[in-house]
Amino acid sequence: MKNWLKIVAVVLLFYVHIGGMLFDVPRLNILNETVRALYFHVPMWFGMVLLFLLSVYYSIMYLRNPTQRLDYLAVEYANAGLLFGILGMLTGMLWANYAWGSPWHGDPKQNGAAIALLVYLAYFVLRGSVENDEQRGRLSAVYNIFAFAAMVPLIFIIPRMTSSMHPGSGGNPGFNMYDLDNRMRLIFYPAVIAWFLIGVWIVSIRVKVRTLEEKILELEHGKTY
Amino acid sequence: MEKLIKNILRVALLFVSAVAYGQADPEMADVMRSEGKIYVVVGIILIVLTGLVVYLFMLDRKVKRLETLLGEKNSPSK
Questions:
Q1: Number of compact structural domains in chain B
Q2: Would you say the C-alpha torsion A82, B52, A96, A197 has a positive or negative sign?
Q3: Alpha-carbon distance A14 to A11, whole Å?
Q4: Number of domains in chain A
Q5: Which domain holds residue A67?
Q6: Are residues A18 and B67, on separate chains, in Cβ contact within 8 Å?
Q7: B56, B65, B75, B77: best mutation site toward chain A, by most A Cβ within 10 Å?
């Protein structure tokens, strides 16, 4: 990852954390100041979807041209996406406790997101259960495509078809409801970009570590045989 | 040694003067105390964020160093 992108991510993050806490937000009942949580909770999910999208892209590339590096990229993007998803789930539960009355409401959006995360957890279970490198790469790449295809309706479609309390779902408008004058977009979109870039950065480090690990194993192999 | 003691005394004096100043002017309304002390929270969040970012940068550098190290080790054998 390019160094200037890292700096852009860090600068945007600082802007988001200062602006998110201090800039004006719409005054709303029940939500009150917690409307600011939108700057920190929703970018986790946007980041997760973007990282999963890259993961499935590298999985498809792997199926077309199976190289170790593409497999690593697919795994690590899924890994970082899962991290973001878990953080999004935890922040959402804390927010729901005060906006809806309890941390787990069985809301379609919450259930869908939980199932999607479980589907992705199964991806790692699958990877852990296959010994052969090529077989693991191929199987998990195919499963990754399925996981992405399952996540989209679980998070974006089903909650919109039923009644849900989550903004942007059935019977509820999206966050257009809040940003009466586009004030919130000025922080929300930079937050999405910043967290996504941080995710890409983490992935780049983890892919490097994996590559190093493989090189070391190769070296040891060369010594013993 | 003498220099050290002098420096310690200087720092102590600084603290004493700060405390004395605080007592003399209790109505200090600086930024960190205004608006329900929200700026304190912002400061705390920024400290955590800075720590994490610096940590990520250091991790990045460490991995890069390992990469070059392994590259050097690898090249003469091949």
A1: 1
A2: negative
A3: 5
A4: 1
A5: 3-224
A6: no
A7: B56
